[in-house]
């Protein structure tokens, strides 16, 4: 099954709303200049919550083909939960995607697979696609336990989804030791785990789910190394952190083909 490659830029806690507008405009120009084929690669930006309205206005106003998403979502539908941002709020802002279970949230906010799973369900019920992040830390990798560790995160995070739903989801394999470190996994490292994820999904949910699911690699991806990673059969795109803040880098990543 042909899966449309997806390049998602996670801005993390960077850029105010004016800077966000400038970056999206420059990205749109860069991709237009290079005749980016939006049918070939889907481009998504994932700004902080406070920038979403500005990005929405720009994307709608200029009819840009760039999609956008949020970095997190509440497990609650709404009500007395101070500080929470609900799926309903995000879908009203035109978000297509929600990143859940990023390693920084698992690490600094103690997010468990159970919580990540609940957030993924909230996103999907709100009409958005969750980008479910999984991946091992350095100790686990050095112990050679990276595949079983990551698969157990996949099992926990995808619990309760139907095969049809899984076919439309996105999983991002992001080895924690490669995030923001400049230490990129080799294309073979990425393929090893991405293919194990797809095979686990095949066992649990069947062929349709496994063949439809898009699996991204994330961890120090740049324009210079994206080509080798994207050649791998089970890598359907990248979740990009630092390089997504630089228009030439992210433009180059989106135009890897
Ligand atoms: C990320 O934050 O998801 C990420 C992959 O970051 P970086 O590209 O900076 O390693």
In short:
One of its GO terms (molecular function) is isomerase activity. It catalyses: D-glyceraldehyde 3-phosphate = dihydroxyacetone phosphate. The protein has 257 residues and is of the alpha/beta class.
Write up what this structure looks like:
The protein has helices at 17-33, 52-61, 87-92, 103-108, 113-125, 138-142, 146-157, 163-167, 187-205, 207-212, 226-230, 247-254, and strands spanning 6-10, 42-46, 67-70, 97-100, 129-134, 170-173, 214-218, 237-240. Helix 5 crosses helix 7 (146-157) and helix 7 (146-157) packs across helix 9 (187-205). The chain has a single domain, classed as Alpha-Beta Barrel (TIM Barrel). It has an 8-stranded parallel barrel with strand order 1-2-3-4-5-6-7-8, surrounded by 5 helices. The radius of gyration is 17 Å and the shape is globular. It has 257 residues and is of the alpha/beta class. Helix 2 links the parallel strand 2 (42-46) and strand 3 (67-70). The protein binds phosphoenolpyruvate. Phosphoenolpyruvate (PEP) is lined by residues 10, 174, 179-180, 218-221, 239-243. Its main location: cytoplasm.
């Amino acid at each position: 099954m042909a899966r449309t490659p997806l390049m998602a830029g996670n801005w993390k806690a960077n850029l105010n709303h004016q800077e966000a507008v400038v970056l999206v405009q420059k990205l749109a120009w860069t991709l237009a200049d290079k005749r980016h084929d939006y049918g070939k690669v889907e481009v998504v930006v994932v700004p902080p919550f406070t920038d979403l309205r500005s990005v929405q206005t720009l994307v709608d106003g200029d009819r840009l083909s760039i999609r956008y998403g949020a970095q997190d979502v509440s497990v609650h539908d709404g009500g007395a939960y101070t500080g929470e941002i609900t799926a309903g709020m995000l879908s009203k802002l035109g978000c297509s995607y929600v990143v859940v279970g990023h390693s920084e949230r698992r690490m600094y906010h103690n997010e468990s697979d159970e919580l990540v799973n609940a957030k993924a369900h909230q996103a999907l019920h709100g009409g958005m696609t969750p980008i479910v992040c999984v991946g091992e830390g350095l100790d686990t990798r050095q112990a050679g336990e990276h595949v079983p560790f990551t698969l157990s995160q996949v099992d926990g995070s995808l619990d309760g989804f139907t095969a049809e739903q899984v076919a439309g989801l996105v999983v991002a394999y992001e080895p924690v030791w490669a995030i923001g470190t400049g230490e990129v996994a080799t294309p073979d490292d990425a393929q090893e785990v991405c293919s194990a994820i797809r095979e686990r999904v095949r066992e649990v949910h069947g062929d349709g789910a496994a063949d439809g699911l898009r699996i991204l690699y994330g961890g120090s991806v740049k324009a210079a190394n994206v080509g080798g990673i994207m050649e791998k059969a089970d890598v359907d795109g990248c979740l990009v952190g630092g390089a997504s803040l630089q228009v030439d880098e992210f433009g180059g990543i989106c135009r890897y083909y």
